[in-house]
Design brief:
Layout lengths: L14 H14 L3 H16 L4 E7 L4 E8 L10 E3 L3 H6 L13 E2 H9 L1 H4 L5 H14 L4 E7 L2 E8 L10 H65 L7 H15 L7 H12 L9 H4 L7 H8 L1 H8 L7 H9 L20 H16 L10 H11 L6 H18 L5 H5 L4
Antiparallel strand pairs: 1-2, 1-6, 2-3, 4-5, 5-6
Helix pairs in contact: 1-7, 2-7, 4-6, 8-9, 8-14, 8-16, 9-13, 12-13, 13-14, 14-15, 15-16
């Protein structure tokens, strides 16, 4: 071991404060490269060495690479590489456990002393050649002291120090300081690698989740289109109710805007889907009831009323359509609580369902059936007003009639055919 120097002749360095600064930097710096550069610069300026270098494990390629070097005899960073089987690396890896010599740091002077002993000079095993390889490497690189930084049992990095320009030896206190610094660097490197691995995994997970979400939306859109086609097929069985789905959607959106509802983004999509799919449950109603040319008997009417719950059930696979299902389930509720299937009243009924109830009833009134003709718009308005506060939400009725009259005045028409021929958009 080199002899220590008189403490008064050593540089005045607050090692504990330096280590605290390193610890703070480890937390603050996201990339270890910056920390490693700061450490080599500090050692170079403080201890007056011929050079300071850091050799870091490139785990992907199973070799050690110089990542930073400073001083008059600095090493070519990125060009000098040690494979994992290099004698100097092996000294600090598993093979070191079999040796009875210092394993936490290595002085060139100690290597020379060991090789001068007869047990190594005359050895027939690999110990002598191992030490010879270490000596050669340290001399070629002008290295006086090598200190490993461990993570668990693996040396993650090697702090490689040249001799002092003033010829002084390293003190025991300095060696301990370098050991702590090397291990702190190794911890920072492994922590950064772990964080980068987590970030990469999270990015990959986000990518996969987006792909899954895209596929899910595509599948749900396909299912929605199928439901719309089926709903249109249901109404195609009643040819006199021409364009019922499209007209109910258009009238419902007009009324919602008149009521001051925000119809941008998801809000409009939800209302539009509910207006289009409100009768999709009629898929499960027998044609004999659905197309009966006359009023339904009591038992038939009970079956017909199940279309509300059937429709909500059909939409269950559409996870984004929870609100749509709620609207469809409530579109035959009455404002006074006398509707079905839950007997909701007033504000308990979703506002979209209250709008749907008004426009659906209006279109049914003015449409011709096989057993009766359609009534005039004025009669339809009057029936809606008569039901306001009982069957219908009064505000929804007033808003619907008001926007209808505005459109009629704007288009200069006064009867139902304009709905079918021109639409109200």
């Amino acid at each position: 071991m080199p002899q220590g120097q008189d403490p008064l002749s050593l540089p005045k360095v607050d090692y504990q404060e330096i280590l605290r600064d390193v610890a703070r930097s480890m937390v603050r710096l996201k990339r270890p490269e910056r920390l490693l550069k700061l450490i080599t610069r500090f050692i170079d300026r403080t201890f007056g060495l011929s050079h300071t270098a850091l050799l870091i494990l490139d785990q992907k390629n199973d070799r050690y690479v110089f990542v930073n070097s400073r001083g008059a005899k600095r090493l070519p960073v990125g060009l000098v590489k040690f494979d994992s089987d290099h004698p100097l690396i092996q000294w600090f890896c598993g093979a070191r456990k079999k040796l009875s010599f210092q394993k936490d740091f290595l002085f060139l002077s100690d290597v020379k002393k060991m090789l001068s002993r007869a047990e190594f000079r005359l050895a027939t095993n690999s110990k002598g050649s191992h030490l010879t390889g270490i000596q050669k490497a340290m001399q070629n690189l002008n290295i006086e002291l090598v200190i490993p930084g461990y993570f668990k049992e693996t040396p993650v990095g090697l702090l490689m120090l040249g001799g002092r320009r003033n010829g002084r030896h390293f003190s025991k206190q300095e060696v301990v300081f370098f050991q702590t610094l090397a291990n702190d660097c190794s911890m920072a490197i492994k922590t950064a690698e772990y964080n980068q691995s987590l970030i990469a995994q999270n990015r990959e997970l986000e990518k996969r989740l987006k792909e899954i979400e895209t596929m899910r939306h595509k599948e749900q859109r396909t299912y929605y289109e199928i439901m719309r086609s089926l709903a249109e097929e249901v109404h195609a069985k009643e040819p006199n109710i021409y364009g019922h789905i499209s007209e109910v959607e258009r009238l419902g959106l007009m009324t919602a805007r008149e009521m001051g509802m925000e119809l941008t983004g998801p809000g409009k999509d939800v209302l539009s889907a509910a207006l289009i799919l409100h009768d999709v449950g009629k898929i499960g109603i027998p044609d004999s009831i659905l197309t009966k040319p006359g009023p339904l008997a009591d038992d038939e009417w009970k079956i017909m009323k199940t279309h509300v719950e059937k429709g909500a059930k059909i939409l269950e696979p559409l996870t984004d359509f929870k609100k749509v299902r709620e609207i469809i389930l409530a579109h035959h509720e009455r404002y006074d609580g006398g509707g079905y299937p839950q007997g909701l009243r007033g504000d308990e009924i979703p506002i979209e369902a209250r709008i749907l109830s008004v426009v659906d009833s209006f279109h049914a009134i003015v449409s011709s059936r096989c057993y009766r003709g359609g009534r005039s718009m004025e009669e339809a308005f009057q029936e809606l007003q008569n039901g306001a506060g009982a069957q219908f939400d009064p505000i929804a009725v007033d808003s619907f009639i008001r926007i209808m009259k505005k459109e009629m005045h704007k288009k200069g028409v006064g009867s139902m055919p304009f709905l079918l021929e021109n639409g109200l958009s």
